[in-house]
Amino acid sequence: MDKELERRGHRYVRYADDFMIFCKSRKAAERVKESITRFLTVKLKLKVNQDKSAVSRPWLRKFLGFTYFQMCGQSKIRIHAKSMKRFKDKVRELTSRKRGKSLWQVIQELNRYFRGWWNYFRLTEAKSFLKGLKIWIMRRLRSLVWKQWKNPKTRVRNLEKLGISHQDAMLCGNARKKYWHMSKIKWVAIAMPERYFIDQGLYLPGN
User: Fold this and answer.
1) How far apart are CA 64 and CA 45, in angstroms?
2) Which of 2, 3, 94, 153 is the most buried (most CB within 10 A)?
């Protein structure tokens, strides 16, 4: 197929059986899609997945987890929305408060996943996404720790150990709000900032 595309003078990108062909107009793209589909099915005796095949703008499509956009006249790559969702779903799974895992165990599992994920996506333009992502990850971990501290006395004592005044620690420690709500409370966030988890070994994408 590569030789056929080169013979026709098409610009394309391919990895295994995933590929994209770039054309100058929709009309040309539709014509190429039809002819290449016929070449694959008739000449090469391969089955084409029609559900994943389409004529569209490059920045609307996903290729190997990436998508494309223009910035200052240059083509850039970024993480596709579906890849972002898959990442967040995995983090939710690993930081679930129902798993009964210690914070140390959760951090080890996150680190393995984060390193592999970031090694794959590190060439993308992802600064704005990563900034919001880190804030969200911190809240997931704080809510996990808040549940593990269990009772008000333990929460008050641990907040004080982390530098929160007795009065503010009492106010937070005795609050009856849900774990997720407490993860964004000022004094809880001050007690457990990003550095708190990094010091316990957490690796964050982009750091």
Assistant:
1) 24
2) 94
Query: Which residue's entry shows tokens 């197929």?
Result: 1
Q: Which amino acid is at 26?
A: R
Using one digit for the tens of pLDDT, what is the confidence trace for 108-129?
999 999 999 999 998 887 777 7
Q: pLDDT, tens digit, for every residue of 169-200?
A: 999 999 989 999 999 999 999 999 999 999 99
- The closest of 120, 108, 115, 86 to 205, measured between CA atoms, is 115
DSSP codes joined into one string, 121-168: HTTS--HHHHHHHHHHHHHHHHHHHHHHT-SHHHHHHHHHHTT--HHH
Nearest CA among 196, 205, 206 for reference residue 110 = 205
Burial 95-133 (b: 16+ CB within 10 A, else e): bebeeebebeebbbbbeebbeebbeebeebebeebbeeb
What is the H or E stretch that residue 92 is in? Answer: helix 81-94
Residues 207, 203: Cα–Cα separation, whole Å? 7
CB 20 within 8 A of CB 58: yes
60 pLDDT tier (thresholds 50, 70, 90): confident
